[in-house]
Amino acid sequence: EAQVTQNPRYLITVTGKKLTVTCSQNMNHEYMSWYRQDPGLGLRQIYYSMNVEVTDKGDVPEGYKVSRKEKRNFPLILESPSPNQTSLYFCASSPIRFAGVNYGYTFGSGTRLTVV
Amino acid sequence: QQQVKQSPQSLIVQKGGISIINCAYENTAFDYFPWYQQFPGKGPALLIAIRPDVSEKKEGRFTISFNKSAKQFSLHIMDSQPGDSATYFCAALNYGGSQGNLIFGKGTKLSVKP
Prior knowledge:
- The structure holds two protein chains of two kinds.
- By secondary structure, chain A is mostly beta strands.
- Chain A contains no helices and eleven strands.
- Chain A has strands spanning 4-7, 10-13, 19-25, 31-38, 42-51, 54-57, 65-66, 76-78, 87-94, 106-107, 111-115.
- The termini of chain A are far apart.
- Chain B is an all-beta fold.
- In chain B, 0% of the residues lie in helices and 52% in strands.
- In chain B, strands 2, 4, 5, 9, 10 and 11 form a six-stranded mixed beta sheet that branches. Chain B has a five-stranded antiparallel beta sheet with strand order 1-3-8-7-6, with no helix packed on it.
- In chain B, strand 7 (62-67) and strand 8 form a beta hairpin.
- Chain B is globular, with a radius of gyration of 14 Å.
- Classes of the chains: A mainly beta, B mainly beta.
- The interface between A and B is medium-sized, with 32 and 30 residues.
């Protein structure tokens, strides 16, 4: 089944303790992206990657790191999490070219992160 | 200039009615406008999308209307059903620029009453 897999689904951590949220896709997509979703703010892009070793900042990159060493994986790293990073995080992937007009990112099921 | 403004924030519609969600953008470089549907506990899923060279696209009960001169686009859900109750996001992308940089509106929570 074509899918984007994030782990873990739920995570509670303490301020300052480094964590990594993993993301993997099995569709051989070039583009991958991380979004955070907060009530009233919608989906805001953190980072995206166009291909292996190529990444770019989205709208809210502060406090986050990413890496793209393999095409299928795009982990999100929080070096020193803070309570304002408590959020619902989504990983997504897309092919480099639009598949007709209905291009779109395929999203994972989300990771709910709480930083206390 | 990268913003996509979406309204209303929430919407209650009776079963069988028409749901209308509106979005506006400023960046004229945007040339691809998808709508996403999100159910509780799930990730967003692509619903329907349009390019600015057409003014309307219809797929089943879902229609996008696009007004390039006004920089506005909207989603119409005809014959709304309780199963349509979800959060809807409009989005925009510069196809000719950075295809990875998909910008979302803040979302509309739709409730369809039986």
